[in-house]
Design a protein that fits this description.
about 425 residues, mainly alpha, two-stranded parallel sheet, about 65% helix, globular, hydrolase activity, Zinicin_2, Hydrolase
């Protein structure tokens, strides 16, 4: 029996989205109908660089394989409605920014996938387009011929590969999120505050707080996010713009691939498997990508810090459980959280607002010194926003002290993302 296992062909696609297709040929009786069905999905026509029909299909299967995904009951929907009404009343006392959500709803994990897929496609498409293009252009003709059909298959199936990666990542993320804005991005429909009761239940396990308190706290954060995104429409374009810039910076080290390809024997699957496992086609992060990631991380920190600050004010003297729940949520984000694993699994794009505490302190200090209205007015235009350097001196920003723009290009980058490279908003700013 052991000899039979040793004689089984190595899977050259191990660790890649194509592993399960190759595995069908070596895992016992071959079901050609299943194989042809999978291949048909992989090579089916699709718009853009990502096969998102395949992505949603994989995500749904991932969720189904993880266990039951019940449709929220009427009592769960009623609890979300009640929590949203109370949350909006409390938030009205903490911020002058009006309610952004007009509807509250409870989602299953499958409903989260369906309702956020369009936004995920918008976010991932720019990165996928540049990675697939870079992958197809990276190898010279001699190296392509040396690798045989493998390189051609990987290039041709690039959209399907990304579709499977996105689907697997979204399926895993659906099992962890608690709401539509859980990762700081506006993923769901506008003005719809959506909460996942099963996700809220999982978040509350081991926290020793009542289910009602956990649900109310999650709903408070969800409603606060919607207020901010509706009040500041430039936020969405700034976030998407930073992600698009990250995608534009994608580069593949051609010389490294050429060097490694010269040592590969296409007739030896184990060599190809080892090369793929070692990241043969994975793009390296460029300086341009790092700058885009830094801007994205900083903006997410300001968003999450404002939400923390406003929810803290809204629950002060009303909800004793809010402080420990806030700390639990902050730890969840600081240790990586669901967003970082998802984006890292796709193309190495991490979303971790490392200076979340500093951002919260900045907004709280501004409220103490200038009032809540001044704190919220900053979000009316990107030119009024603090920059990354202000996170190192939040009290200075709160007191209106000037910053040195040369120390941080966050304002200039935001202006370029919003106005385009030919805009006039940045011409007076120093380099």
């Amino acid at each position: 029996m052991a000899d039979d296992e040793k004689n089984e062909p190595e899977n050259p696609f191990k660790g890649t989205p194509m592993e399960q297709i190759f595995g069908a040929f070596s895992g016992g009786p071959v079901d050609m109908n299943q194989i042809m069905g999978q291949m048909q999905k992989m090579f089916a026509p699709h718009e853009g660089s990502v096969n998102f029909d395949l992505a949603k299909d994989v995500a749904r299967h991932t969720v189904a394989a993880a266990g039951p995904d019940p449709t929220p009951t009427s009592s769960q929907q009623g609890a979300v409605d009640d929590a949203a009404r109370l949350a909006e009343l409390w938030l009205d006392t903490a911020t002058s920014i009006p309610a952004g959500a007009t509807t509250a709803t409870a989602w299953s994990r499958a409903e989260w996938i369906e309702s956020t897929a369009g936004t995920w496609q918008q976010l991932v498409e720019p990165i996928a387009a540049h990675v697939v293009k870079a992958m197809s252009q990276a190898l010279p003709e001699e190296a392509k011929a040396m690798a045989g059909p493998l390189i051609g298959m990987l290039t041709q199936a690039g959209g399907a590969m990304f579709g499977q990666q996105v689907g697997q990542a979204l399926g895993g993320l659906a099992g962890e999120v608690v709401s539509s804005t859980d990762i700081g991005l506006p993923l769901g429909p506008e003005r719809v505050a959506a909460v996942l009761p099963e996700g809220v239940k999982a978040f509350g396990e081991g926290l020793e707080h009542s289910a009602a308190d956990v649900l109310l706290y999650v709903t408070l954060r969800e409603c606060a996010h919607h207020r901010l995104f509706q009040h500041s429409p430039w936020l969405r374009s700034a976030l998407v713009g930073a992600i698009e810039e990250y995608g534009r910076g994608t580069r593949i080290d051609i010389s490294a691939i050429e060097q490694q390809m010269q040592t590969l024997d296409p007739s030896r699957p184990e060599d190809i498997q080892e090369a793929l496992a070692g990241g043969l086609f994975e793009p390296e992060r460029t300086p341009e990508q790092q700058r885009a990631l830094d801007r994205l991380e900083t903006l997410l920190a300001f968003i999450e810090g404002w939400v923390d600050e406003v929810v803290t004010e809204a629950t002060k003297d009303r909800m004793p459980a809010a402080a420990p729940l806030s700390e639990a949520m902050r730890r969840r984000r600081a240790t990586g959280g669901p967003a970082e694993q998802t984006f890292a699994a796709l193309v190495g794009l991490e979303l971790r607002p490392r200076k979340l505490r500093e951002a919260t302190t900045l907004w709280a200090a501004m409220r103490d010194r200038q009032g809540a209205d001044a704190r919220d007015a900053v979000w009316s235009h990107p030119d009024l926003m603090p920059v990354a350097a202000d996170l190192d001196d939040p009290l200075g920003f709160a007191q209106g002290e000037s910053r040195t723009q040369g120390d941080d290009d966050f304002d200039a980058a935001l202006g370029e993302l919003l106005d385009g490279p030919d805009g006039t908003g940045d011409e007076d700013r120093p380099e």
